Each structure stands twice: as C-alpha cells, then as structure tokens.
Amino acid sequence: MSECFMIERVALKRVYLRIYSDLYDPKPCPGRYGYHNAFVLVGDREALLPEPGRDPIEDWEAEYMFDERWPKKCEFCPYEFRDERKQVFTLRLWKATDGREGLWHLHENMDGHAPVGAMFYANWHSYWPGPDGKCLAVMTPAGLWSIDGPDKDGNRCWSRTGTPPLISVTPSINFPGRCEHGVVEHDERGRRKKI
Prior knowledge:
The longest helix has 4 residues, at 61-64. Strands 2, 3, 4, 5, 6 and 7 form a six-stranded mixed sheet that branches. The protein is mainly β. The chain contains one helix and eleven strands.
C-alpha cells in the first residue's frame, strides 16, 4: 500500500546530455530502445514555470554543444558514438505539497521518477476534466495513471470521489490494484502491467 500525496511543479528542470543513434546498424542494440542510447546527468537548474496548458521551451543546446560530458558509448552495448544525434534532455521537477522531502520527475523509465502514490493535476490534459474540472493523475506500480483520462483503448471508464489526495476510484484499475480513501493498494506481481 502507498499513501497518496499531492505534488506540484517547481521552477527546476533536471538536465541530461543524451546521445543516440537510430541509423541503420547491422547489429542492432540489444537495449530496451532497440537503438544505441546514453544519458549523462548534468544536474538540476532553474527553469521557467509553465503557463496553463503550455510548458516553455528553454534552448540550452548551444550552451552544452562542446561540453566534455557527452556520453562516448551506448549504455546497453559496446557501441561507440561517432557523430550521432545529440540532445539536451530535460525533465520538469515536482515537489510534494505537504512538505515531505524530495524532487521528482514523471518519466517512468528513468531513475528519480515520482514514487507510487504521487498525485497531481495534469493540466496539459484539460480536455479530460474530472468532477472538479481538472484532470487528476497518480503514479502506480504499473506506471502513470490518468484517472480522469481514457484507458489504453480510448474509453473513459473511471470515476472518482473525494478531495485529492483522499480519493476513491471506481471501478478498480487493472494493474492489479485500486485507489481507495487516498491509498494506492497494489499487488507486487502486477508491477509491469500497462494501465
């Protein structure tokens, strides 16, 4: 079980230097993406807070162009990068509204993502309003769940009651688990099922 708690955006982004190759390679990468890829964490830095429905774009490419920290080899195999695509990869950071320690991002496949139970308003999904006129989402063991949004087949099938984070959702979600009275209950065997 994981207690739900609200998180909100802060004026920080986590910055990575990413290099990847999606060019044809007779020996494709065995990693999870199917192509050569590597990230190097630069750190957290101040960033503009988004306006409702928009996330401002900071152009930091030129600043890091000749940085010595760019990855030299794929993180999944021995492939060495030559002149592949470079990207300054950033993740918006979030903090708990109840004062608990930590800064998290929402990218489920990278270290440092929000823990199970972290709940927030996904204002970029304003076209899926819940009973309070906002789209609510929560991190589950199976990944991010947009409670007020559609399921993987495009059907809107859940309803929530209560005041976030103390909500209950019906019917139960299929990760397997449920959200009742502000607690995400889960069965560890279902960790990687998609919602």
